[in-house]
Amino acid sequence: MLLENQAATMLQLQDKMNAKVNPDWLAVKSPFLRAVVIEGSEAIEHHGWKWWKKQECDLEQLQMELVDIWHFLLSAVLIEHDGEQQASKATVMAQIEGHSVDFDGKTYQFNELDLLAKLELLIGLSAAKRINIGLFTTLLADCQMSWVDLYTQYICKNVLNFFRQDNGYKQGTYIKEWAGKEDNEHLVEIMAELDAADAAFQDNLYQALDSRYKSLNT
């Protein structure tokens, strides 16, 4: 189960990340739910959906897509509440145990849907500008992730996103591939070397990324 303090931390970090990209992000109201549509489609690709050919589910990539989707869902919730953190947290916690949704004249029971059907429903809801955290909860379970797993991976990806922005991602000067591996791969390696329970985990992760980036790109 997601703890309230974890939800609060992620909402705060998401606000800071969005503000780093654009200080007026709340006023601009970028289409974050459109991003969920795209990421949801990519998740379907990683799962495999073509019935006319053999495909293998790439669970690790599927999990990474869920982490990205969570960033966009948090952003959409914050916009819905004009950036008010407490109201945003209340929405997340109130929806987290939802088991069904009424959509387009039909009631969808999440436990009656397989993973692909849930991803399709997520895409449909997002295209209709609707947020459903309960559906996301069931997607986590289907992808063998707990809220603790999601929280840890979210923190790590958030740190990487800050690191990218600090090193010219928006300006196009950031080097995404280091010594033949993308930064996401380096992130996973560094994560394995650090204690996620350490209070200084975020700072330690950032510093380790910075050190490796400089050593491999200079």
Write the layout of secondary structure elements.
Elements: H1 4-21, H2 25-28, H3 32-47, H4 59-80, H5 85-95, E1 100-103, E2 106-109, H6 115-127, H7 133-142, H8 147-166, E3 177-178, E4 181-182, H9 183-193, H10 201-216
Antiparallel strand pairs: 1-2, 3-4
Helix pairs in contact: 1-4, 1-5, 1-8, 3-4, 3-6, 4-5, 4-7, 4-8, 6-7, 8-10, 9-10
Question: How is this structure best described in words?
Answer:
With 218 residues, the chain is mainly alpha-helical. It contains ten helices and four strands, in the order αααααββαααββαα. β3 and β4 form a beta hairpin. The longest helix has 22 residues. α4 packs antiparallel against α7 and α6 packs antiparallel against α7. It has two domains: 140 residues, Type II deoxyuridine triphosphatase (all-alpha NTP pyrophosphatase fold, Orthogonal Bundle); 69 residues.
